[in-house]
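tokens incoming
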């Protein structure tokens, strides 16, 4: 079955790979990814929350700490 399909050109594969790499390295993707990780960590630490307000504070704490680590690493690695 593999012999029935023509393989894509190397240049096409390289351009597709570059598009994927640019998307994964973008700042917006990282912020959305941090949003999901913060939500996941907040859900897993549910026994530590005593109220909904505390859960929201913990969520924003995770999110802001993740953003600050991301911005710090991005600034350090650009130099």
């Amino acid at each position: 079955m593999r012999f029935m399909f023509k393989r894509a050109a190397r240049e096409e594969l390289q351009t597709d790979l570059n598009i994927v790499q640019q998307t994964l390295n973008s700042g917006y993707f990282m912020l959305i990814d941090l949003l999901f990780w913060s939500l996941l960590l907040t859900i897993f630490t549910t026994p530590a929350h005593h109220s909904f307000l505390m859960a929201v504070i913990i969520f924003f704490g995770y999110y802001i700490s993740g953003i600050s680590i991301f911005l710090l690493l991005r600034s350090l690695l650009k130099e």
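note: Residues 27-79 form one domain.
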